[in-house]
Write a structure and sequence with these properties.
Chain lengths: 249, 278
């Protein structure tokens, strides 16, 4: 697809996934690995799209699991910009991640704007409720916020994805070695933020040894993720069994 | 059922109405979320198929709709159980039992906190990261499965949970939440999910945080000490693990200042790159 086509598609995608249509469906849609699937399909470069998506996913892994739905950083805006630009400019995943970070922060403000404008519709619904107009309430809950969301979200991604490709390509060429190496360091450290956030979200200090066990299961035993998932499930279930026995006794 | 005898026929909801209510709430739980009243609008919208059937006059319907436009916010998957309970209360009210508006609002506001806490712990802090991290290695290797599988599995699993909870909430009413909150089962589920989640996060940390130092010191005798080799002799993976726990300690102490941490990581990366530390 042409640059224009990609920019239009990504603008729409950002609008649609951030519309939050379908509670968990939309939150799966706005994850970088999922965005990467669609970028891969429209650009024809699935491999690089997925690799950049995976790198970004790690950074935002914990962010989406933050309670209360207050996004501290927006994986969708970061993904909708950094993945297509990264693929088009032939960036390595680390550079694309570094590029994504400022957009992830920008996305927070966009979301605040949405939640502020959404207050208009709830007042409208108050009036519909007065008139027992159930159709009006459905419109206020779905149609109006969707339309306003398009105006808020589509232009940002469209403009950056359309004009950004050549900028990104030039940027890669003039990037000095020390800076591109610092991007590599950044890409290496940033996943730690995602994991640290998950640790605080789960929030049980006495369970941290399980985190450390998982870490060293890979370092010393060289297990892959699926193997760790299987052993972790068995251990958790067995611990439950022992706990129940104790409580019965 | 109740022994109240009314002249009217009892209005009974069927399973379809309740499922429809679940779908509306699922579809829009975040869509119309506003700072002012959060999920109140979608909760009201999700009750419309129920209320339209229960209340025939415009006055009654209007009052019922307004009742559900009050502040409401909870976790959208486990929140289905509150919907189920509220639907059963509305049905009893419509059939002439003396249930006050306050009783319905009270149930909603009383339950939304604890349910949100459980939902965040199970759905968002465990189910979601576990599903995404299992398929992450596919994505890292450039396979689309890494994105497609979570996109199918996460909504599917959570919708099944919602479906079960709303019908359970409806048939058992208030009893369902008592068994949910006080039964040891819930605690065990959260414990199991947390153990799996944390172990997975640890495993991913080991594979995906890459931090090593090229530092080395040469001595006049011709011997050199490569710092990374020394670190590996103590404990391999020391630097990545430290990175997680330094950020974790900061988050615990100073609160969720994600942007500040991001900026710090950027600055640290540039400085250590210039100095050749990492």
């Amino acid at each position: 697809m042409s640059v224009l086509g990609v920019a239009i598609f990504m603008g729409c995608y950002y609008w649609f996934c951030r519309l939050r249509f379908g509670y968990t469906f939309s939150s799966a849609l706005l994850q970088p690995v999922t965005i990467a699937v669609f970028v891969g399909l429209i650009t024809g470069d699935m491999k690089n799209a997925m690799m950049i998506g995976a790198g970004l996913q790690l950074v935002y892994m914990g962010v989406t699991s933050t309670p209360g739905g207050n996004v501290p950083s927006d994986p969708a805006l970061a993904g909708c910009i950094a993945i297509p630009l990264g693929v088009a400019a032939g960036m390595n995943p680390q550079t694309a991640i570094a590029l994504a970070i400022p957009f992830g922060v920008l996305g927070v403000f966009v979301d605040q704007l949405r939640r502020t404008t959404n207050a208009i519709w709830v007042h409208m619904a108050d009036r519909y409720a007065e008139k027992a107009d159930t159709k009006g309430i459905m419109r206020a809950a779905f149609l109006y916020p969707a339309a306003a969301g398009f105006i808020i979200r589509f232009p940002i991604v469209f403009i950056i994805d359309y004009f950004g490709v050549s900028v990104a390509q030039n940027l890669i060429e003039i990037l000095p070695a020390w800076l591109s190496h610092s991007f590599e360091i950044m890409g290496g450290i940033l996943p730690a933020l995602g994991f640290a956030i998950t640790l605080t979200v789960i929030g049980k200090k006495n369970l941290i040894p399980f985190f450390i066990a998982g870490f060293f299961a890979v370092i010393y035993l060289g297990l892959d993720t699926m193997a760790v998932a299987i052993f972790a499930t068995c251990i958790a279930l067995l611990l439950n069994l022992f706990k129940l026995k104790e409580e019965e006794a | 059922m109740s022994e109240t005898t009314t002249n009217q026929e009892m209005t009974k909801l069927d399973k379809k109405d309740i499922t429809k209510s679940m779908w509306i709430y699922y579809a829009g739980a975040e869509l119309s979320n506003s700072y002012e009243r959060l999920q109140s609008l979608v909760f009201c919208a999700s009750m419309t198929p129920i209320l339209k059937k229960l209340y025939t006059t415009d006055e009654e319907l209007s009052a019922a709709l307004k009742r559900h436009l009050v502040f409401f916010n909870t976790e959208g998957i486990l929140g289905a159980i509150i919907q189920g309970i509220v639907i059963s209360m509305e049905e009893q009210k419509a059939n002439g039992e003396s249930i006050t508006d306050d009783a319905i609002t009270g149930i909603k506001t009383g339950l939304m906190g604890p349910v949100a806490g459980m939902g965040d712990a199970i759905i968002w802090a465990a189910v979601m990261p576990i599903i995404f991290s299992i398929f992450l290695p596919f994505a890292s290797n450039g396979s689309a499965l890494g994105g497609i599988m979570p996109l199918i599995l996460y909504p599917l699993i959570t919708i099944v949970i919602s479906y079960y909870l709303i019908h359970n909430g409806y048939t058992l009413g208030k009893k369902s939440i008592v068994s949910l909150l006080h039964g040891g089962r819930m605690k065990n589920i959260i414990f199991t999910a947390n153990v799996i989640g944390l172990t997975m996060m640890g495993a991913l940390s080991a594979s995906y945080i890459t931090l090593s130092t090229p530092l080395q010191f040469s001595f006049s005798g011709g011997s050199t000490i490569v710092i990374q080799e020394v670190l590996d002799l103590i404990v391999p993976g020391l630097l990545p693990l430290s990175a997680v726990f330094i950020i974790y300690a900061y988050l615990k102490k100073k609160g969720p200042h994600y942007t500040k941490i991001l900026l710090t990581v950027v600055i640290v990366s540039i400085i250590t790159s210039l100095l050749g530390i990492f």
